[in-house]
Amino acid sequence: MKDVRKVVIPVAGWGTRSLPATKNIPKEMLPIYNKPVIQYVVEEAIRAGIKDVIFVTNRDKAVIEDHFDYNLQLEGVLERAGKEDKLKIVRDVAEMVNIMSVRQKKQLGLGHAILCAKELVHGDPFAIMVGDDLMFGGIPGIGQLIEVAMSENMPVVGVMEVPWDKVSKYGIIDGEEVAPGVYRVRDMVEKPNREDAPSRLAIVGRYVLTPDIFEYLEKVKPGKGGEIQLTDALQMLAKDRGMMAVRMSGMRFDAGDWAEFLTANVYFALQDEELRYELLGLLKNFVQFQ
Fold first, then answer.
1. What is the pLDDT of residues 14-69, one digit of tens each?
2. 207 near 158, Cβ under 8 Å?
3. Which of 10, 72, 86, 197 could be cross-linked to 192 through a Cys-Cys bond (beta carbons 3.0 to 4.6 Å apart)?
4. Distance from first CA to last CA of the chain, Å, rounded?
5. pTM listed for this prediction
6. Number of domains in the chain
């Protein structure tokens, strides 16, 4: 398998789980501590050696691309004010990665969003990272998948164990563990009832795929709401070619879930030594008054 140097990040969704905050602001631009959600996702990709980011976007999400571009007016203000540290921060964001984009003109599911990126992928193996799923740990989350994909020459999905009462919210795999935390996928089920779930191993928004996935996406029949589901194409790919799954290590935050979004804010704020003890004091006082 060729080196994985491209990632597709779908960001065209409406973010309805996060309303009303996302009425006029993309969910991917909501701040976690001092960065928008999408910047954490892109930084994870960069740490894994990815060079090109392909956003699948819509007409109302230009602010996401703008975030990774130069802002000459802001840079001029910071330069004149002598705020060199702030100036470096905003320039570093603009220079961190090569950004490309394609529009998903109709919201027809995750599978359709990935299919929109076919021409920009150019027949290479590529990663997919869901834009509101955050992964943190020693080895970048997507990097754990790339390592297995390269060694096995096979597509890979990232999984984590979830409680039984939450399996109905995820795609769940049935797999044979062939090495610690590495599974050969036998089947996968999209949002099964608890009694029908083959395991608690849930697909959590990280994939490394071969370009033949597009052939399967073009065959998938639209389901509920006319949507093309990525899981349907992955099932076919797994049966014909084979597929691996990696139980990912590290911490995960779903930025579309308010409890996890707020927890992520506290987690990252506590990493700031200048803010940590003041924040802990405020949280302690807050808890005492509850």
1. 888 888 988 889 999 999 999 999 999 999 999 999 999 999 999 888 999 999 99
2. yes
3. 197
4. 55
5. 0.91
6. 1
In a domain, 221, yes or no: yes
Provide the sign of the torsion angle of the four alpha carbons 90, 96, 100, 105, taken in this order. Answer: negative
Distance of CA 274 to the CA centre of its chain: 29
The distance of Cα 187 from the centroid of its chain, to the nearest Å, equals 22
Strand-pair category, 171-179 with 182-190: antiparallel
Q: How many residues does the chain have?
A: 290
- According to DSSP, the β-strands at 156-161 and 244-247 are parallel
What single-letter DSSP state applies at residue 92?
H
Assess whether the previous peptide bond of 163 is cis (omega < 30° from 0).
Answer: no
Our CA dihedral for 249, 5, 231, 167, rounded to 10 degrees, sits at: 20
Q: Look up residue 163 and give its amino acid.
A: P
**Domain-embedded: residue 289:** no
Q: Do the bridges between strand 35-36 and strand 31-32 make them parallel or antiparallel, or are there none, so unpaired?
A: antiparallel
We report the CATH number of the domain holding residue 194 as: 3.90.550.10
Within 10 angstroms of residue 243's Cβ, the number of other Cβ atoms is 26
Residue 96's domain spans which residues?
Answer: 6-256
- 131-173 tens-digit pLDDT: 888 888 778 889 999 999 999 999 999 999 999 988 988 889 9
Which amino acid belongs to residue 151? S
